Amino acid sequence: MEHETHSEHLGHEAHHPGHTHDQHHQHHGGGKVSWAMAAKATLHCLTGCAIGEVLGMIIGTALGWGTAPTMALAITLAFFFGYSLTLWAVVRAGLGLRTAIGVALAADTLSITVMEIVDNGVLLLVPGAMEAHLSDALFWGALAFAFAIAFIVTTPVNKWLIGRGKGHAVVHQYHH
User: Fold this and answer.
1) Residue 138 reports pLDDT greater than 90
2) What is the DSSP string of 128-165?
3) pTM score, two decimals?
């Protein structure tokens, strides 16, 4: 990433009133990345993953599917909804669909992958979680626990990505 001149930077500030010099560089991957920014990116990822996973588990459980096909559906839907939330945000910011898809893939792939590995791994380790029904407290408790662990593990990944101008730093170029 090339360094911008002072006048170019001032032009960016005109587009982002209220942003300090440091905030501008955080958005674009330069400088230090706050834990709050990383947590916000992780929460965004977690929201899409949670929607997809819960929907996949509800569908798989309702259809009487076994663990493997239910998890496959849940993971597929987690990626779909995770990407969809980013796509929606950057298309609203004015990007064309083709460019927006590239931004979503660049921003979310590693984050969603880490989140899915961790939360599904945790679910597999909680005794009885995969056999629990939607009406069981164990189902919802294990899922909440798995998402909490996934959030804790994925936040440093997002902090690292944003600090290198990757992950949600890509989204912040278009969406403030």
Assistant:
1) yes
2) TTTT--TTSHHHHHHHHHHHHHHHHHHHHHHHHHHHTT
3) 0.77
